[in-house]
């Protein structure tokens, strides 16, 4: 398996999406940096740089899903990214397996066009109880199935502040500001790019770095 890394923004938005709708299944799309993709390689190295929340009640391949995926493909090209994966969180608090996740046809469609795609299952229980470790399960598509893969946290998340930033967002109830495609369909003036979330993360990382520098000077 090629090396996979997750940037904080991609991770945080998945977690916020699940936290905003704890009573619903949610799903979304993952973007990877296109400059790191090697044409023809079977196991691509992926740098997952962003996630785009899709639905909390319209999960299956439908006219709305088709519209969302078309827009996402255009956005990916504009940002020099590729659609490299799918994420989902189950409706039932105790479910955290691929088989229970919504919208698997979307995930399979992504894997059809990009065989190195990943499927991330958000572990609902960990969002509430364990903010000190990643609340996800990583899967790769192989032999027609999504198979669970072990990962090294330090390798998967090069940004040492990813848990702190996500925790700060949850403690500040910033999940209420997250906009998924369902929200965007209700009001197209809403920012589906979630620039606010990106700003919060950058501000938190900056504050942490400044704090570390200050402590070293003392």
From TrEMBL:
Parts forming coiled coils: none
CDD domains: MPN_UPF0172
Domain MPN: 4-142
First and last residue of the signal peptide: none
One Pfam family recorded for the sequence: UPF0172
Protein name (database record): MPN domain-containing protein
Family, as annotated: Belongs to the EMC8/EMC9 family.
InterPro entries, alphabetized: EMC8/9 (IPR005366), MPN (IPR037518)
Highest rank taxon of the organism: Eukaryota
């Amino acid at each position: 398996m090629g090396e996979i890394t997750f940037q904080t923004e991609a991770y945080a938005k998945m977690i916020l999406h699940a936290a905003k709708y704890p009573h619903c299944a949610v799903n979304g799309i993952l973007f990877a940096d296109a400059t790191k993709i090697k044409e023809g390689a079977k196991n691509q190295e992926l740098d997952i740089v962003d996630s785009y929340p899709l639905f909390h009640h319209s999960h299956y391949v439908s006219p709305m899903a088709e519209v969302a995926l078309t827009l996402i493909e255009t956005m990916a090209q504009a940002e020099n990214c590729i659609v490299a994966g799918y994420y989902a969180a189950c409706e039932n608090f105790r479910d955290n397996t691929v088989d229970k996740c919504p919208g698997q046809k979307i995930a399979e469609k992504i894997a059809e066009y990009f065989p190195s795609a990943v499927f991330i299952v958000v572990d609902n229980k960990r969002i509430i109880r364990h903010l000190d470790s990643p609340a996800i399960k990583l899967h790769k598509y192989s032999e027609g199935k999504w198979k669970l893969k072990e990962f090294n946290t330090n390798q998967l998340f090069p940004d040492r502040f990813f848990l702190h930033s996500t925790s700060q967002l949850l403690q500040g109830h910033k999940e209420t500001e997250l906009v998924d495609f369902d929200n965007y369909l209700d009001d197209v003036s809403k920012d589906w790019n979630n620039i606010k979330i990106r700003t919060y993360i950058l501000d938190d990382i900056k504050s942490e770095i400044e704090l570390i520098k200050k402590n070293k000077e003392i």
